[in-house]
């Protein structure tokens, strides 16, 4: 039996391990932390037994992921939960705009821009499975549905702010698009953020932006359950510093960042690859603050309290300012 070694038990490393184990490989996963999950782990230590996701919390890509679906994670305890609304975007002194799991219901929120919203999003929402098959697939291959890629067309290169100005007449519709776009961790004034905003919004209007019941850790636990069901092994508290200390394997997967890969001994990487990795420029980091609420947030529009995600970024100009500050190392207002 061929053996695969996976270094790093984040969601990607565990998914690779589960897929290989299901294909008959003998897999061994090594994780340096005392727990598995990386930035997708949850903890009950912070707020006295309440579940806190330490990193990832919302899973618009998780629920449609072809890799997760192939593993039938629901048979291993994973359950997705959705709120009444997928997302709310409040505005000062006005009602909020709500993103629902319906293109029509979302468009109806937008008054003068209802038709434009529907027209812009319909080709993506209606063919979301094919778009996902194109986008969440290995990158060095011909897309499965090339005609669907063309549906992004010119909007795909535009920034979310230009796309919003071109297609919408109201600030509310523009901000709704920009709020989704900045999940790419980039200012909505940057190229390609328009396509990301369209896709992220479309995911909400189709599969939703769910959370995992029991916290993101339950995605991790279901992946671990698949790995163990196929006889795979996961070792925690194992900081891998030299690959030569691990058992010999036909495949070694490093689920690490470029700098971490360069620090590893025994990788025998070609000089050119090391050079490319050493030039890798890390993007803006993400961090989160968790609040344990004593009572519901008193939103002036009570519908906001029924949304799973709330974008408190304000107008496109305010979102752009905040993203630009973060990107240049300043704390946004
Ligand atoms: C604050 C925050 C919020 C986020 N929110 C969301 C969200 O809502 N939705 C979403 O989809 N995504 C979200 N993300 C992104 C998501 O968490 C990451 O995309 C995901 O965790 C990446 O998974 P990974 O397996 O590639 O890497 P990681 O999760 O980083 O896992 C890498 C693992 O490798 C281990 N490791 C490193 N070096 C070694 C070594 N030498 N030996 C052994 N093990 C090692 C680490 O301990 C870690 O467990 C968020 C991220 C952060 C930080």
Task: Give a description of the structure.
With 333 residues, the protein is an alpha/beta fold. It folds into 2 domains: 3-57 and 215-278, FAD/NAD(P)-binding domain (3-Layer(bba) Sandwich); 80-211 and 299-327, no CATH class. It is built from 14 helices and 11 strands. The strands form 4 sheets. Strands 9-2-1-10 form a 4-stranded parallel β-sheet, with helices on one face. Helix 1 runs parallel beside helix 11, helix 5 crosses helix 10 (193-206) and helix 8 (160-167) packs across helix 10. The structure holds flavin-adenine dinucleotide.
Tally of individual domains: 2
Bound molecules: flavin-adenine dinucleotide
State the distance separating the first and last CA atoms. Answer: 56 Å
Shape: globular
Strand content: 5-15%
How would you characterize the largest beta sheet?
A: 4 strands, parallel
Secondary-structure content class? alpha/beta
Return the string of H and E elements.
EHEEEHHEEEHHHHHHHEHEEHHEH
Q: Total number of helical segments?
A: 14
The counted number of beta strands is 11
Average pLDDT works out at 93
Instruction: Give the strand line-up of the largest sheet.
Output: 9-2-1-10
